[in-house]
Every structure is written in C-alpha cells, then in structure tokens.
Design brief:
There is one protein chain. With 124 residues, this protein is of the alpha/beta class. Helices cover 35% and strands 19% of the residues. The chain contains four helices and five strands. It has a five-stranded parallel beta sheet, with helices on both faces. Strand 1, helix 1 and strand 2 form a beta-alpha-beta unit. The two termini are 25 Å apart. The relative contact order is 0.19.
C-alpha cells in the first residue's frame, strides 16, 4: 500500500526541465504536492506566506547557485528542510552544500530520493 503525503508540499529548484519533471512525477506519484522552479528567483523565502515541507535545491544554477539561495533563504527565516541535488559529487560548491544540508547526486535512485524526502518532510 502506498503511503500518501498529500498534505506535504515539496519545492524543486533545478534549471534542467527534465530533472524537474522526473522528480515532480516521482514525488507526485507518491502523493506529494509539488511545485517546480527553474531558478531561486521565483521562490518566496517566507514560510508563513507559502509553507513548504521540503526543498530540493540544485547546487549549480546559472544565475545564483544553490548555496547562495540556501543562505539567503535561511537569513530571511526559511526553516524548512533542504536537500541539495547535484550532478557533481566533488567541487567547492558541492562541499559547501554538503556542510549545510543533505545532498543527493544525480543520476538519482528513486528509492533514495523518496527516503530522503520522506525523512526531511517529516522532520519537526
């Protein structure tokens, strides 16, 4: 029997439309409510106005990297769990991301994504 996460909202920020679509489909098929964004510009860091249970955030984005977005949002009071996603398992930004939050390396294993999101979205 599939667990339902209908009340849990997940945001996905990745500049690659195929990654956004694949993650959204996977999470929606397990009952999550998902919103996708191509950059950090479009997301509101204010949790009161737009609550989210977990943010999947790409480390390497064209205009503002995921670490900068993470730091900016934390400074603005965003306290929801974040899981960084990246295709690069090494590098300066990947190391900085790993210091701040959990990290998943592309290509993703569906079970690993679901387990990480379930754990993060259920965190108090």
């Amino acid at each position: 029997m599939m667990t339902t996460h209908a009340k849990q909202r997940i945001w996905i920020v990745d500049d690659d439309p195929s990654v956004r679509q694949a993650l959204a489909r996977l999470l929606q098929s397990h009952g999550y409510t998902v919103e996708t964004f191509s950059s950090g510009v479009d997301i509101s860091p204010c949790p009161e106005s737009n609550p989210v249970d977990c943010l999947l955030l790409d480390v390497y984005l064209p205009t503002e990297n995921g670490v900068e977005i993470f730091d900016r949002m934390r400074e603005a009071g965003f306290s929801s769990p974040v899981i960084f996603i990246t295709a690069k398992s090494t590098g300066f930004l990947t190391a900085k991301a790993r210091e701040r939050a959990d990290l998943l390396v592309k290509p993703f294993d569906s079970a690993a994504v679901l387990a990480a999101v379930a754990q993060a979205a259920s965190a108090p």
